[in-house]
Amino acid sequence: MRIIFMGTPESAAKVLDNLISSQHEILCVVTQPDRPKGRGQKITSSPVKELALKHALPIEQPEKVKSNPVFFSLLKSLNPDIIIVVAYGKILPKEILDLPKFGCVNIHASLLPKYRGAAPIQWTLLNGEKETGLTIMKLNEGLDTGDIIKQEKVFIDEDDTTPVLTEKLFKRADNLLHKALVEIESGKAKFIKQNDSEASYASLITKELGEIDWKKSALEIHNRIRAMVPWPVAQTYYKEKLLKIWGSKIHVLDLVGGSNLPGTIVEIVKNIGFIVATGNGHLLITEVQAEGKKRMPAYNFVIGHDVKIAETLPN
Fold first, then answer.
1. Running DSSP on this structure, what letter comes out for residue 114?
2. Which domain holds residue 282?
3. SS3 of 111, please?
4. Residues 6+ away with beta carbon under 8 Å from 208
5. Which sites bind (6S)-5,6,7,8-tetrahydrofolate (predicted)?
6. CA 43 to CA 34: how far, in whole Å?
7. Alpha-carbon distance 183 to 79, whole Å?
8. Are residues 66 and 193 in the same domain?
């Protein structure tokens, strides 16, 4: 098929890479404009653009896709059979949705109608779900409300972080997309309406979502820590300085002599890290990042900052 590909992050680049090596023809790659990134705010291309450049594919980076007649005319002139969208970052207008012979399809990282929206993987982890999956759907004008073409379930391990679960999901994307494209082209695809009554939404992740409340349960805090990797990263304070928490494990601890206030450091675990009391249970902190420093094993932080039992992390 003649394909226009729209996507931006690394997960989208992996899908594009497999399409490039398939029998399909990539007419054009559309991705977000180059943006400032990192501490130095260096102008950086998206992973999708980098891959497209490597393969000398035509690239478009419109600031807007709605009310952009020049961009629409370009897409129309390419006469695509289908547009494939993977985490592009912009909502397509009806004129683009209706342009290709077979419409526009999207790979969404949840089992729709659950977790419609911008951050399905993070919210899946934040809510402690045991399973999720990939959905290939036909795009319409709604927010992830289009008809379902294919789905595949994926089980979640208790220590999966956002990058780990993203990789786990998108390992399945190529085979699922291949099946969907074959069925679409042959006219055998089934388009299943979503049940809106079962829908939930995964809003954009904000920096505030990284704030740890030690009065929550160990499980809730652990889920927040793994969901907030790699941004904004879960955070607390130690001696009034920001401390980012990159890794943790639920810890079963049999303490003698009563309970501790949430946020209290109750044990140092040699070569691993430190254990913190929560509103319900205990959490072993395994990887941290002190203010202005690089990520490090939590035990290195303990040694370097002379962390003591009974010190507290504020709520």
1. T
2. 207-305
3. coil
4. none
5. 110-113
6. 6
7. 20
8. yes
The answer to whether the bond into 113 is cis (omega within 30° of 0) is yes
113 marked as part of a ligand binding site: yes
The per-residue pLDDT string of the chain (315 residues; one tens digit each, 9 = 90 and over) reads 999 999 999 999 999 999 999 999 999 999 999 998 877 888 999 999 999 999 999 999 999 999 999 999 999 999 999 999 999 999 999 999 999 999 999 999 999 999 999 999 999 999 999 999 999 999 999 999 999 999 999 999 999 999 999 999 999 999 999 999 999 999 999 999 999 999 999 999 999 999 999 999 999 999 999 999 999 999 999 999 999 999 999 987 655 445 789 999 999 999 999 999 999 999 999 999 999 999 999 999 999 999 999 999 998
**Phi/psi class of residue 281: alpha, beta or left (left: φ > 0; alpha: ψ in -120 to 50)?**
left
Number of structural domains the chain divides into: 2
CB atoms within 10 A of CB 280: 13
- The verdict on 50 and 168 lying in the same domain is yes
C-alpha closest to that of 211 among 181, 182, 243, 180: 243
Q: Do residue 217 and residue 148 come from a single domain?
A: no
- Cis peptide leading into residue 62 (ω within 30°): no
Q: Residue 32 burial by CB count (10 A; 0-12/13-18/19+): exposed, middle or buried? A: buried
Quick one: the chain helix, strand, coil %, rounded to 5? 30, 30, 40
pTM over 0.90: yes
| Of 172, 202, 232, the domain-final residue | 202
Sorted by sequence, the CB contacts under 8 Å of residue 154 that are 6+ apart come out as 131, 132, 133, 134, 165, 168, 169, 172
Judge whether 202 and 119 are in contact, CB under 8 Å: yes
User: Is residue 243 annotated as involved in ligand binding?
Assistant: no
Question: What is the chain's alpha carbon radius of gyration, rounded to the nearest angstrom?
Answer: 23
Q: Enter the tokens of residue 186.
A: 């042959």
Question: Cα separation of 113 and 185, whole Å?
Answer: 25
How, if at all, do strands 148-155 and 131-138 pair?
antiparallel
